[in-house]
Amino acid sequence: MAACTARRALAVGSRWWSRSLTGARWPRPLCAAAGAGAFSPASTTTTRRHLSSRNRPEGKVLETVGVFEVPKQNGKYETGQLFLHSIFGYRGVVLFPWQARLYDRDVASAAPEKAENPAGHGSKEVKGKTHTYYQVLIDARDCPHISQRSQTEAVTFLANHDDSRALYAIPGLDYVSHEDILPYTSTDQVPIQHELFERFLLYDQTKAPPFVARETLRAWQEKNHPWLELSDVHRETTENIRVTVIPFYMGMRVCGQPGPLLAGEAQNSHVYWWRYCIRLENLDSDVVQLRERHWRIFSLSGTLETVRGRGVVGREPVLSKEQPAFQYSSHVSLQASSGHMWGTFRFERPDGSHFDVRIPPFSLESNKDEKTPPSGLHW
């Protein structure tokens, strides 16, 4: 294929992506330096979407790794669709879609037909709208380049025994919103480097996309559906900082194993676990830094807990025009089958002033028909 034309690139260590600027004609070639890592879009307009770079690495030769396709405005992407993440820049492949309910407080109607107002904690009334997300695999070559902006081991599970504090993760598994997909095609029969790629997908050149689900993927999806399912997404923007929260129920365990109990736990009590994924996005050009978190956690048992601390997951991320987003996952446990969480993030501006950003309230709901624990990678 011809080399990319009219291009800019983003340096990521010694690796970089490059792609064509003009968006009026498709398909467009996707080029990368040999062994390239992830890329980051610098801006988006109606006519172009491009990358930016201050320093192009010396001695790097561009290699074409695929061809961009027209992003879908309607309909869903199929299993096996290759893509670039529009925010975090990694290469990935779609495994299967999820239909979620998106509660967007930025577009909340004045009089919704059916309100969702968790526990009445001062939140706007919003009506859920169906939105498509995808379960995806992340290319292992890109993980080192996005680890400062997005966790690559964020999808965690309870271990399949009764130790309520034992968790395990599947590296390189993620959830991606439909609008974050930049689809592309490749002639490579194994275009994504991930230990599960060839276990889940089979190359079939007669199909489009040319990767079809193996029986192992269908069986794994069915067996782990209760622990993977994405059902509700909550979003709210404060002073151009958008916070998106996705909660996941992980299961229930009986706390009665040897070892010290966690604070508030009683011997042989039921402990319910949830994982929640949070994405912070700076929609402005001003640089801001996350400094503090303030959570309020309400349990159906009647308890209300307040949690304050510096940063999140040990970090105080900076959100800038060049790197506008940060994504992480954390966990919460309750001695009740449901509850609610809400709170604020405190950000700091370059002049030292602070402002609080609302975390949209979200429900913690358990699966009443819970059966077996997740199977992970055991077939």
Which key phrases capture this entry?
24 strands; 5-stranded antiparallel sheet; mainly beta; 13-stranded mixed sheet; globular; 379 residues; 3 helices
Overview of the structural elements:
This protein has 379 residues and is mainly β. It is built from 3 helices and 24 strands. Helix content is 6%, strand content 45%. β10 (156-158) and β11 (167-169) form a beta hairpin. The longest helix has 14 residues, at 215-228. It starts with 6 loop residues before the first strand and ends in a 14-residue tail after the last strand. The model is unreliable at 1-24, 40-56, 109-121, 258-265 and 375-379 (pLDDT under 50).
Q: Average pLDDT, to the nearest integer?
A: 79
What class would the helix/strand composition place it in?
mainly beta
Give the SSE string.
EEEEEEEEEHEEEEHEEHEEEEEEEEE
Please tell me what the overall shape is.
Answer: globular
Q: How many beta-strand segments?
A: 24
The proportion of residues forming helix, as a percent range, comes to under 10%
Low-confidence stretches: 1-24, 40-56, 109-121, 258-265, 375-379
End-to-end CA span: 41 Å
- Radius of gyration, in angstroms, nearest whole number: 22 Å
Largest sheet: 13 strands, mixed
Give the DSSP E fraction (strand runs of 2 or more residues).
over 45%
Helix count from the secondary structure assignment: 3
